[in-house]
Amino acid sequence: MRLAILLLLLFAFLFGLSLGLRAQTAVTDYPQRVYETRRTVEAPAIDGSPSEAAWDLVEWSGDYLVYNPNPGEAPTQQTLMKVLYDDRNLYVAFRCLDSEPDLIEQRMGRRDAFPGDWVEVNIDSYHDKRTAFSFTVSASGVKNDEFISNDGNWDESWNPIWETRTRLDSTGWTAELRIPLSQIRFPAGAEQVWGIQSTRRNFRMDERSTWQPVSPNASGWVSRFGELRGLTDLQPRRTLEVQPYIVAQRATYPAEAGNPFADGADNRLSAGLDARIGVTNDLTLDLTVNPDFGQVEADPGALNLDGYQIFFQERRPFFVEGQNIFDFNLSSAEAGGSHTS
């Protein structure tokens, strides 16, 4: 009798525990949002103010919902987004409303930093629900770009060429982005559907909101995107980027009489280049000749207070291109990946 009671209590305990775990890991399914974009003949000026007539072709889309810290609630400050395109570029405009514009956090930082307030757009141009291209700009104009693979792995070593400007006004701050279609990949087709997501960070409230609502307990990131429709007659553009460099050095010192190897000056000349060639829409050729650290941004200053050597990340383009292929995260990635600043 006692054994039966103990087994019954054990069963009730395990059943209650399973219900509790299910409640903690419950995932809210939000309906998929759709944004209808349009082609523009006249390209808008990228000056941080989406006031050109071209932007009137499309509607503002808002209704962002909080992703963190209070998922599903209306954000403290709302965000609006517009998307246009032409044969060569994708244009994105943001209006980040703020009832206290004087408190908008404008911090400067290096590229691929996330200082202060920022807003971003993620584009799944292959619409494979696994990979996407991320473009972020802070209120101070700092650019960030990342390649997303495996539905949630973020690679910040990807550095495409694109343009952005921001501007503050009495209602908050605005941003305009021009993303060349040569910097993203997509298949050929008369009508296309891409995945799209947008995230905004309100620094002073430590709040992130997204255009396509996402449950923090949901697995994956790209697979939860909304849809970007209205893209017609787009042709994939092949990439051709050549980045040459040349470095000249001259050192002077006291000459030594009778020594032809110490004539008072040493001159050195070094040159090289990196190239990125799109063979097809799915195949890219990367090559380098005599790569040099001087052709990329300088390493940040560091003060060594222990006995271990300081490690600086590899920054030469040829050696970091496609490194996400070898990135295997063993834990689930949070939306925004390295967006921890």
Topology record:
Blueprint: H1 2-24, E1 34-36, E2 38-39, E3 65-68, E4 79-85, E5 89-97, E6 118-124, E7 132-138, E8 143-149, E9 153-155, E10 163-169, E11 172-180, E12 189-202, E13 207-210, E14 226-234, E15 240-252, E16 265-280, E17 283-289, H2 317-320
String of helices and strands: HEEEEEEEEEEEEEEEEEH
Query: What is the rounded Rg?
Result: 25 Å
Helix content: under 10%
The total beta strand count reads 17
Shape summary: globular
Count of helical regions: 2
Helix and strand composition category = mainly beta
Annotation keywords:
single chain; 341 residues; mainly beta; nine-stranded mixed β-sheet; 8% helix; globular
Describe this structure in words.
- By secondary structure, the chain is mainly beta.
- The protein is 8% helix and 38% strand.
- The strands form three sheets. Strands 1, 3, 6, 7, 8, 9, 12, 13 and 14 form a nine-stranded mixed sheet that branches. Strands 2-4-5-11-10 form a five-stranded mixed sheet, with no helix packed on it. It has a three-stranded antiparallel sheet with strand order 15-16-17, with no helix packed on it.
- A hairpin with a 3-residue loop joins strand 8 and strand 9.
- The longest helix is centred in the N-terminal third of the chain and has 23 residues, at 2-24.
- It is globular, with a radius of gyration of 25 Å.
- The termini are far apart.
